[in-house]
Amino acid sequence: MSEILPDNENVARAVFSPQMIGVDGILLLSAFALRIFKDGTKESYISVSRMSVNTWMTDLKGIPQYKNRRLYGYATLNIGQIRSITLYAGNHPIIYDVIDCSNTNCKSHAGIIVQINDTILTGGHNSIIDKLEIDEPEDFVMVAIQAELLKIAKTNLVRL
Predict the structure, then answer these.
(1) Which residues is 73 bridged to in the sheet?
(2) pLDDT by residue (tens digit) across 90-127?
(3) Which of 37, 45, 110, 141 is most enclosed, with most CB atoms within 10 A?
């Protein structure tokens, strides 16, 4: 069983340019999108760094950068605020949590997970939305999920 992270802890979401930041320096919804990787793997959590772990900034700066993806900075989110988000898909509550994903290469690694009916949402199609016969289209639900995280993070953006 992984460690339960305390509500008073903060996490940092690495923000990359140009995908996650507008030309005006405003954080975009895409900063909190769940993706499908090139190998077809569906992302099941939004990667963040635990700011209580002393290596968090080194871990953050160690995330690979590419020609079209440069580290811009980071957005700070409080775990208690994440967990207290109230959002529904139809009549079904959407539950947010932050889990420990640390490993020997990245001791501060954590992930924001989002669930409906005990099913963790991933990048790409989520059949749980079809099974529950939720009236809203899946892309609408996913944008609403991202928007709630953006509300918390947008005032806590730090440029490196």
Answers:
(1) 15, 159
(2) 999 999 999 999 999 999 999 999 999 999 999 999 99
(3) 110
pTM for the predicted model, two decimal places: 0.94
Q: What is the DSSP string of the chain?
A: -PPBPPTT-EEEEEEEETTSB-TTSPBPGGGG---B-TTSPBP-SEEEEETTSTTHHHHHHTS--BTTBEEEEEEEEEHHHHHT---EETTEEEEEEEEE---SS-TTEEEEEEEETTEE--SS--HHHHHTT-SS-HHHHHHHHHHHHHHHHGGGEEE-
Range of the domain at 108: 10-159
| Number of domains observed in the structure of the chain | 1
Q: With respect to residue 1, please indicate whether it lies within any of the assigned structural domains.
A: no
Does residue 5 form part of some domain?
no
Q: Is residue 153 part of a domain?
A: yes
Q: Per the omega criterion (within 30 degrees of 0), is the bond before 6 cis?
A: no
Look at residue 3 and tell me if it is in a domain: no
